[in-house]
Every structure is written in C-alpha cells, then in structure tokens.
Write a structure and sequence with these properties.
Radius of gyration: 21 Å
Number of helices: 16
Structural class: alpha/beta
Strand content: 5-15%
Number of strands: 9
Distance between the termini: 41 Å
Strand order of the largest sheet: 2-3-4-5-6
C-alpha cells in the first residue's frame, strides 16, 4: 500500500488520494457510490411519478446515453454503437411494454435448494414450487461432490426432464476442479454453472466455458463483478454465456446501463442476480427495461427470485405465475418500512439488542 507522510495529512488532496487507495471504481467506494446513486434514481422516478423501469423506457436514446460513462469500454462499445442499439430497440417498444404489463418477466427460484437442506426439505420445497407454477430451479453446489450428485438427482427426479435446472458454486473451485466437477454433474442437464471460480478470473472463466460448451452447459457470472471493465473483458474473452448484473454491486443504474448495452452488442442474455435483501425489488426494474428497450428478447433470459425478507419493503415485488409483474408505484422500490429500519438499526435496534444481550449471557 502507498505510504502517506505528514505532508499528505495536511494536503487538501488527502481525500482524493485516500479514496483512490480503496478504489477506484471497485470495493467500498463503488458500493457506496451505488447506494447514493440508487437513492437519487429513486427520487428522480418519484418526482416524475413513474416506476424506475418506466422512467428509463420513456427516455430517448440521447438522454439515456448521457447517463453512461463510456471510459475504459470504447474498445467494446462506443457511444455511436449504443445509440444505434437504443434506436433499434425503440421499434416495438409499445408492444413489449404491453406484454410485460400483462404477463411479466420470467423468473427462476433459488429458494428450494440451498446447501444444508435435508433431502426431505428439498423434496417438500420443490413440490410446493411446482404447485405454484415454477418451472426453473437453481441448486447450490460445491461443498461435496457426492452430496451434489445426490441432491441434483433428487431435484431432477421431482421436477422432471423438461423443467430448467441451474447450479451455482459461489466461487468454490479452481479452474480444473470446476471442469472436473461439472463433468460429473452434466448428467442432470444444467443450463448453466454459476460462479464456478474467482469472479476476477476472466481467463479462468473462459477456459471453463470452452471446456463445458460441448456438454451444452453455459457459464453464468457477474454478481461479484466489480465494474463495467470486468464485464467488458468477460464478454470479449467469450468467458460467459449468461451475464448476471447486480443492482448494487455496479455503480447504480448508470453503470448497469453500459453493461446491458454491451451484452446486447455481444448477444449474451442478461439474467440478473437477485439473491440478497432488496435485490429482487431493485433489479426487476432493470431487466424489464432491458427487455422493452434494449434486448427485445426473452430467449434464455430469466431473473432470479428468492422468497425471503420482502415484508420489510414498502413496495415488495409481485410474482404471478413465476414471473415478475412490473411495479406500478413510483420510484425504484428501494424504500424500507420505518418499523423494520428501527428494529435493525445498530446498536440500539430491537434485533441488535437481543443479539447483544444473548452474547452477554
């Protein structure tokens, strides 16, 4: 790490130097940037009286492009190319918007097959999901191969051969291990392996992608991508077949716009990550906008859904027939209930007080 001497401490540039040491455009600085800018987009949409997806859909191409920082990505996407994509995307927008309002955006569930669930619980949750109309299921893998084989067999037997199955390793493996492990899971016909290795290893993902292509297994990644530059490299290296944006990891709506446009240029479907608190509420806006204004396609495109903690939000997601229904309330669906915020504030909130008291006892 770069040293700072006493002269640095007196310099008016101290903050600038300090922020570059913990960034730039990654890590805590980027996460904070996303939080602030997401709040501003929420306010903008509320001021316009529109849900965020509709605010974006109603913008003309020039206005959208003015929101994007093209630094470091012009070797993959120029402003002119982005403008052309958005211009072409304007054809049929009205019909696609009507389609979204009627049918929603297709989703998949991650809630049935977390690591640590017993076989009995897996069967129960999968059967319940099938009754609710779910047709796409994701399984967490990577801790133990024999356990993964058994769990995948249990789920595949329940959902049948026609339903879609994906597996997610959450960065567990080295590159050779990822390939070897997935060769053993190939019999269960997974659509993709998600985060097979370090999220920063672009060439490793490319190697895995090439090795699994003959098996019909794609590579999905992106939830831990630090910025648009990593996404650019993944696309250029043909390292992924499914691109997973995250509404809070990248620098808010602005940077996600650039990634959506790059994905369109490289013809890679976007399947957002939404496995955290409030992420479903946020990312639904981005993927609905993507379909209406950029991709114009639902082929191989699905958005993650998890069924927990939505009760803490004023405008929780609405799922019907395993699809996200477009939000109708103005804003970015980010606002939490005041009661939930008070209960979870550190250290005086009720939840933290109980935890701290339990530790003392």
């Amino acid at each position: 790490m770069q040293r700072m001497d006493s002269r640095d401490m007196e310099s008016p540039l101290l903050w600038g130097k300090g922020l570059k040491l913990i960034g730039p455009e990654k890590g805590v600085v980027h996460l904070a940037t996303a939080a602030v800018l997401n709040a501003l987009w929420d306010l903008w949409a509320k001021q316009e009286g529109k849900p965020l997806w509709k605010l974006l859909v109603d913008m003309d191409p020039k206005q959208l492009i003015s929101c994007i920082d093209f630094r470091y990505i012009t070797d993959a996407l120029t402003e002119e190319e982005a403008y052309e994509i958005l211009q072409k995307g304007s054809i049929g927008k009205k019909e696609r918007e009507e389609q979204m309002l009627e049918y929603g955006y297709p989703a998949y569930t991650t809630s049935c097959a977390w690591l640590g669930y017993s076989d009995q619980q897996l069967k129960k949750l999968c059967n319940e999901a099938l009754k609710e109309g779910w047709t796409r299921f994701k399984v967490k893998v990577g801790a133990d191969l024999e356990d993964d084989i058994r769990r995948c067999r249990v789920i595949r037997d329940i959902i049948g051969p026609e339903k879609i199955l994906m597996v997610d390793a959450n960065q567990r493996w080295d590159v050779p291990e990822a390939i070897e492990w997935m060769l053993k899971l190939a019999e269960f016909k997974p659509l993709w392996i998600e985060e097979p290795t370090s999220p920063d290893d672009v060439l490793g993902h490319a190697t895995i992608s090439k090795a699994l292509a003959p098996l019909g297994i794609g590579v999905a990644t992106g939830e831990q991508c630090q910025n648009r530059v990593i996404f650019k490299q993944l696309l250029q290296a043909e390292a992924l077949q499914f691109l997973q944006i995250d509404s809070c990891r990248l620098g808010s709506v602005n940077e996600n716009l650039s990634v959506l446009l790059m994905a369109k240029k490289f013809q890679i479907p976007v399947c957002p990550h939404a496995g955290g608190v409030g992420l479903c509420e946020l990312v639904q806006h981005l993927i609905i906008f993507d379909y209406i204004s950029i991709s114009g396609s639902l082929e191989n495109r699905i958005c993650e859904y998890v069924d927990h903690l939505h009760e803490h939000f004023k405008y929780p997601v609405v799922i019907k027939k395993a699809s996200y229904m477009p939000p109708k309330d103005a804003g970015y669906s980010t606002e939490m209930k005041e009661e939930s915020v008070k209960k979870h504030q550190f250290p005086g909130g009720e939840v933290w007080q109980k935890l701290l008291a339990a530790q003392q006892n």
